[in-house]
Description:
By secondary structure, the chain is an alpha/beta fold.
Amino acid sequence: MMTKKDILSMDLEQLEQLLKEWKEPKFRAKQLFAWLHEKQVTDFAKMTNLSQSLREKLQAETKISALDMVEKLVSKEDGTRKYLFALENGSVIESVLMQYDYGNTVCVSTQAGCRMGCRFCASTLDGVERSLTAGEMLSQIYQIQKDLGQRISGVVLMGSGEPLDNYENVLRFIKLLNDPMGQNMGQRHMTLSTCGLIEKMYDLAEQQLQITLAVSLHAPNDEIRKQIMPVAKANPMDKLLQSCQAYTDKTKRRLTFEYALMQGVNDSDACARELASRLRQMLCHVNLIPMNPVKERAYTKTSKAQVQRFATILQQNGVETTIRRKLGSDIDAACGQLRRRYMQK
Length: 345
Ligand code: SAH
């Protein structure tokens, strides 16, 4: 059987190339791009300014990688929505809609599962099933936008998966999402979160994007970091911070360090002081995350008072710090847990 072409992942140039092979006029590529990414139509029959024969050929030889929405939970507290989508092969992924005063942001998954192995995270418990295509990442946003009936203006790559372990597809996703002929989302409204794959961070810096890079640090030194993040063994902190410095030098963009506070692991005053001493000189800010307890994991969250104290120590030592607000606590199930519940059914 012929595998259908993944048309939602193609950029304009590729659409032009495809239509050229099909002996269609070049301007059709722009029309098609607008249907896919601006109007976000998922049915070729609705692309009324394309000829009947082209629509039929598209239907026969390509597919719009739409995801199947299998579950939706809406928070009564703040409108946060959690979605569970099934991929074609039956794997499932989670996406979250967060509503802020400044707009709607979607937390997108980049892989089904993850192979980075962070010991506090639910997404990595069964390893990675597969990486998502650019179209599958876009489809999370397009579908949620349709479901909500409001524009999605921001995205954070903080769902399941390690974005830099799916580098090419993620880059393509960012560029397609940013395209003025499509969703036209500003790069400054996009955040890519990584567990710190150093080499790929240097590659990303070369792209000179305006996105925000967030690095999951979660520890002030390698000793603690290695206990909770296996990826720290091949990506030691000195080199990681050097790559962060190189990234900000190159892009002039302030970097975010994520730090999930886990009781008795990384949340002492001494940890805060050590962290401050390492970050003080950098163009960065620290986002403290109250840890989300995961049933299968041993870690518990730090008390509110200690989270505040940790923040104050960082601030007093010259490091800009915020504490992440928790949304949708009534539909909780920490990141990745909705997916796990579904998989175990
Ligand atoms: N792989 C990427 C992005 C996915 S996770 C990364 O590692 O950055 C997004 C953020 O949630 C990361 O900072 C991750 O470390 C954090 N996280 C994962 N599990 C968590 C949990 N149980 N509680 C709090 N934060 C968690």
